Amino acid sequence: MAPLSTAIRSFRLSRSPAAPRALPSPATRLAAPSRRRRARSVRAEAAKDVEEAVELKAGVAVYKPRSYEVLVSDAARSLAAAIDDGRTRLEIEFPYAPTPLPLPLGSSDEFIDANVQLALAVVRNLKQLRGTRSCIVFPDQPEKRRGSQIFKTAIDSIEGISISSLDDVPTGPVDTFFRSIRNTLDFDFADDNEDQWKSDEQTSLYIFINSSTQDLSSIEKYVENFAGSAAVVLFNLELDTLRSDLGLLGFPPKDLHYRFLSQFTPVFYIRQRDYSKTIAVTPYIVNYSGAVFRQYPGPWQVMLKQADGSYACVAESASRFTLGQAKDELLRVLGLQEEEGSSLQFLRQGYKNATWWEENVDQEESTAWRT
């Protein structure tokens, strides 16, 4: 047997020489931690997005925003989620705060101005979230000019925003004549800000604000002429109130809902209602409040107002609750619902428990507004 020293020497000689390991340069050593930090940051952002998506899909158990900033942030997140899902016809509705927050309601001008402020806040949040280029569409040229004068500083602070009006829709000679008369009577003369917020870059989101029932037909034409595949938001128009006027003398026909309004998915929706019910024992009259609530992509929810001003979920559904169904859910959770099929239930509900636009499903070209 060979001595141990000879075996060790033979083992060393039989090994191939290892290539020298190159040491990383100072620049590489500095860049590596930076890349790791960026990777961690990307993973953290992705995890945050997934967490927020899961949270939204689950709905909310209790909703009590601390401020309008929270409401606007929630609306912008829901809007971004819907756009990411490929939805392009959208509705946002929260005209009155679900908690006693300072919303000016002293006059129509104050309400109009409040809506402009809220729309600009949503646009600013959406710009930060997705880099979206938005266009605020006013109901007419005088409203556009007034809004641009009052909120010039706020508009200037948002990159990529543009403003427009429904008067930009091509019309016939009769409408053009009456618009010119209106502009003259309103002293609607051009000013230095007329073309300040026009942009040659493509708009990816149009937000319609402060429109009336008569304006709905113009919104449809505007969308057909200018929006194309861009996302469209009907913002705080109180569509259910506007729908109730459709079909009346001097207003657009009901077909406007079946053809156009039914395409719009509510992505952030709060509609409050106050109720009272007479009972046979003290206190004889029970007052209660609730809301139909939706935060996309979460389910539709019926919320009961609590003593502290918060709203607690009492029912959920994948499809939209009618106001009658929402009221029934509130009565059920309060233990005030009459026996099913009883005469008292019929006297309370009556023959019909839904509006015409909630009932006529077969005439709708789209069910998006219910989902």
Question: Could you describe the 3D structure shown?
Answer:
The chain has helices at residues 4-14, 26-57, 68-84, 108-130, 141-150, 152-156, 173-185, 216-227, 239-243, 255-259, 323-334, 343-349, 356-359; strands spanning 62-63, 89-93, 134-138, 162-165, 205-209, 231-235, 265-278, 285-295, 300-305, 311-317. It has 371 residues and is α/β, with parallel strands linked by helices. The chain has one domain (45-370). The chain has a ten-stranded mixed sheet with strand order 1-10-9-8-7-2-6-5-3-4, sandwiched between helices. Strand 9 (300-305) and strand 10 form a beta hairpin. Helix 3 crosses helix 4 (108-130). It is globular and about 65 Å long. Mean pLDDT is 80; it is low at 1-23, 26-31 and 97-105. This is DUF1995 domain-containing protein. Residues 65-327 form the DUF1995 domain. Residues 17-33 have a biased composition (Low complexity).
SSE topology sketch:
Blueprint: H1 4-14, H2 26-57, E1 62-63, H3 68-84, E2 89-93, H4 108-130, E3 134-138, H5 141-150, H6 152-156, E4 162-165, H7 173-185, E5 205-209, H8 216-227, E6 231-235, H9 239-243, H10 255-259, E7 265-278, E8 285-295, E9 300-305, E10 311-317, H11 323-334, H12 343-349, H13 356-359
Parallel strand pairs: 2-6, 2-7, 3-4, 3-5, 5-6
Antiparallel strand pairs: 1-10, 7-8, 8-9, 9-10
Helix pairs in contact: 3-4
